[in-house]
Amino acid sequence: MAFTLPPLPYATDALAPTISQQTLELHHGTHHQTYVDKANDLSGGERTNADLERVILEADGPLFNNAAQHWNHAFYWESMTPNGGGRPGGELAEALSSAFGSIDAFLEEYSTAAIEHFGSGYAWLVHDGSKLAVTHTSDADLPLQHSQHALLTIDVWEHAYYLDHQNRRPEYVSAFLARVVAWDVVAKRLAEV
Ligand code: MN
To answer: How big is the chain by its Cα radius of gyration, in Å?
Structure first.
């Protein structure tokens, strides 16, 4: 048994042009696979995906980095869907409006966190145990490390967008929210908090 790369929940060309087939093939097939391979090497190949959160909480250094990146990427793939984007509805919309003042205010705060995060990392919507919040983390860091429940992420490492949007991170973030974010998945995660 070992950590394994989860298959993408859609075809590699399904998120184009927001995220191209080339980017998904490289990002999932080589970047994410390499985190999985390194996490296996560093843990003796005896931990599985079912152990992943425990490994993350117990590890530091290279094993933490690679295990956390395995978790972050699996969560990011599931946070997107072909023909996604637009505006959230239902109970998620009500929760966002209540927490941030309006859907637009949430989208603005989330976009700003993703665009202005300096260097490699992620922007998140989290539930911190009492309320919804927008956060951003550097490198492999993730909400689990901060006792927060992750609801949504966008990968803002350059490998996530450079082939498709070059240095225009705002264009990538805008397209992510307009076209591919899986609000139904975010709503399901919130319902499970
Ligand atoms: Mn990445």
So the answer is: 16
